[in-house]
């Protein structure tokens, strides 16, 4: 093909093969390959950022997924629900402002007070001009001071999760939690998870003998059922070396129709907890012969 007449198109010099203004299959091919290389480079950079800012941080798997949802704008906050016509208004449950991701986690008076209660090595003050990604980068670099200091485990994901939990409790359960209670819950949950990881790592490095038949941890569960209230209390404990208790946990639940269902719910809760703690080799025991059978 000959040169393109002046005025018929505005050819940009995006490729070193098109400087002459002459188009051919060769220049088109090389231009496409350059564009593809640029796209692959950008994609690789974004993947590395995702790994660094979400998937490789030292926190519970459910919180990694939670942060992933926030960064993808997939969290069902007010303005997202309003845009999908699921709700008619996008008001914040705490202050009646428009509930966006940035507002809920950083700019609502409730959220601001929560962050003020955390002692960072440098002051963390969210800016209205910054989006979540910018503030998240700042939080990953922030270091919490003693006595809250978490070492390699960042506290920020747990704070975000507690703010989200407090919001949902207020909407769906009509239960209100103060800013201090939200911070306390985040710290307790984070330290509990970190302690479980420390126990698992210590056990691995010291090469403890395996507990039983190749299992490193034993989990024993139990349940108490109240027929008149159709409610149950669930409990489970993790052990190493058969009788050396690592930790104990419990929770309550409603709408339970039998004691067998209660025992099943207890062992399921124990399994979910073991998964969240990234335990790989667990033997689950129950005192319900019918359930085990």
Automatic annotation (TrEMBL):
- Give start and end of each Reverse transcriptase zinc-binding domain: 23-115
Which part of the chain is the RNase H type-1 domain? Answer: 221-292
Q: Which GO terms describe its molecular function?
A: nucleic acid binding; RNA-DNA hybrid ribonuclease activity
Please name the InterPro entries in this protein's record. Answer: RNaseH_domain, RNaseH_sf, RVT-Znf
The record's annotation in Gene3D superfamilies points to: Ribonuclease H-like superfamily/Ribonuclease H (3.30.420.10)
Query: Where on the tree of life does the source sit, at the highest rank?
Result: Eukaryota
| Name assigned to this protein | Reverse transcriptase zinc-binding domain-containing protein
Q: What is the lineage of its organism?
A: Eukaryota, Viridiplantae, Streptophyta, Embryophyta, Tracheophyta
């Amino acid at each position: 093909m000959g040169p393109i007449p002046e005025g018929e198109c505005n050819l940009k010099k995006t490729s070193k093969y098109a400087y002459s203004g002459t188009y051919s299959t060769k220049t088109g091919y090389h231009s496409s390959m350059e564009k593809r290389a640029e796209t692959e480079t950008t994609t690789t950079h974004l993947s590395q950022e995702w790994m660094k800012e979400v998937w490789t941080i030292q926190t519970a798997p459910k919180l990694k997924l939670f942060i992933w949802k926030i960064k993808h704008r997939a969290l069902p906050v007010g303005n997202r629900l309003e845009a999908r016509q699921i709700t008619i208004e996008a008001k914040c449950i705490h202050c009646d402002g428009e509930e966006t991701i940035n507002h809920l986690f950083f700019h609502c008076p409730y959220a601001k007070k929560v962050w003020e209660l955390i002692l960072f090595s440098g002051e963390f003050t969210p800016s209205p001009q910054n989006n979540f990604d910018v503030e998240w980068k700042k939080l990953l670099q922030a270091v919490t001071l003693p006595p809250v200091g978490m070492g390699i485990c960042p506290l920020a994901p747990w704070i975000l999760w507690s703010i989200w939990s407090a919001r949902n409790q207020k909407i769906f359960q009509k239960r209100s939690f103060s800013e201090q209670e939200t911070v306390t819950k985040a710290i307790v949950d984070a330290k509990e998870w970190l302690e479980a990881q420390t126990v698992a790592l210590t056990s691995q490095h010291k090469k403890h003998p395996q507990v039983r038949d190749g299992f490193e941890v034993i989990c024993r569960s139990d349940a108490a059922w109240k027929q008149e209230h159709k409610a149950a209390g669930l409990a489970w404990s993790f052990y190493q070396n058969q009788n050396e208790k690592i930790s104990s946990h419990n929770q309550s639940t409603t709408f339970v129709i039998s004691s067998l269902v209660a025992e099943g719910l207890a062992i399921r809760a124990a399994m979910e907890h073991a998964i969240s703690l990234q335990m790989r080799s667990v033997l689950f025991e129950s005192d319900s012969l019918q359930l085990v059978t």
